[in-house]
């Protein structure tokens, strides 16, 4: 039980990565699988995750990420991109997946599929975009905690120009938008931030029991 809190205390937003240390394929697979298993509303996962190791692409992304060194120095750069808009294809694809995964006749899921459509398809495009982005952050949280359990350092990043990311990664034509970036790897011994005490609200300030 103590490891739950130990891992959360150990992790911090790493400001300087050791660019000589790389995540093993095995640990990367575990990290990505934990991300894949993340919860999402209706189970729809309205996003796509890009795992970037290509040095040329990362060099292009660095200037539009406020010049932050994590972009190029981390072992891997993970870009979470939410669906900017969607139609029946997202929901129908999910219903088909449920049918195949659970060996349930697709026609028996029609009621649930119609219910989802009634709640989501008529939403304005900007509301769909915001809803999908919220789902991304659930996956981000799961990825960060899984990384901490693997003693992999992370830095979640919103300090970047989304439009530039979309252009460099070709996201616009895929109806995707770069919503948050997660640099993953191993902290540099020179990163003084790792020695800072973690600052959070007290339990009394944060929680209300009713």
From TrEMBL:
InterPro entries for the chain: NfsB-like, Nitroreductase, Nitroreductase-like
Domain of life: Bacteria
GO molecular function: oxidoreductase activity
CDD domains assigned to the protein according to its UniProt record, in alphabetical order: NfsB-like
Gene3D superfamilies: NADH Oxidase
Residues covered by the Nitroreductase domain: 10-186
Keywords on record: Flavoprotein, FMN, NADP, Oxidoreductase
Pfam families assigned: Nitroreductase (PF00881)
Needed cofactors: FMN
Family: Belongs to the nitroreductase family.
Full protein name: Nitroreductase
Originating organism: Flagellimonas flava
């Amino acid at each position: 039980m103590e490891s739950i809190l130990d891992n959360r205390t150990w992790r911090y937003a790493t400001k300087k990565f050791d660019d000589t240390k790389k995540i093993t394929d095995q640990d990367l697979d575990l990290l990505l699988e934990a991300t894949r298993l993340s919860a999402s509303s209706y189970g729809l996962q309205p996003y796509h995750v890009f795992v970037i190791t290509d040095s040329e692409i990362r060099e292009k992304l660095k200037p539009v990420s406020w010049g932050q060194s994590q972009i190029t120095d981390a072992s891997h750069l993970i870009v979470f991109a939410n669906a900017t808009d969607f139609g029946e294809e997202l929901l129908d694809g999910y219903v088909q997946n449920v049918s195949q995964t659970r060996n349930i006749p697709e026609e028996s899921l029609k009621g649930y599929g119609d219910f989802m459509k009634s709640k989501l398809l008529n939403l304005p495009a900007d509301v769909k975009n915001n809803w999908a982005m919220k789902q991304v952050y659930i996956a981000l949280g799961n990825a960060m905690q899984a990384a901490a359990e693997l003693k992999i350092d992370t830095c979640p990043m919103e300090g970047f120009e989304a439009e530039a990311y979309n252009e460099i990664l070709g996201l616009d034509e895929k109806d995707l938008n770069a919503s948050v970036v997660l640099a993953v790897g191993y902290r540099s011994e020179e990163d003084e931030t790792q020695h800072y005490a973690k600052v959070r609200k007290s339990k009394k300030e944060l929680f209300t029991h009713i």
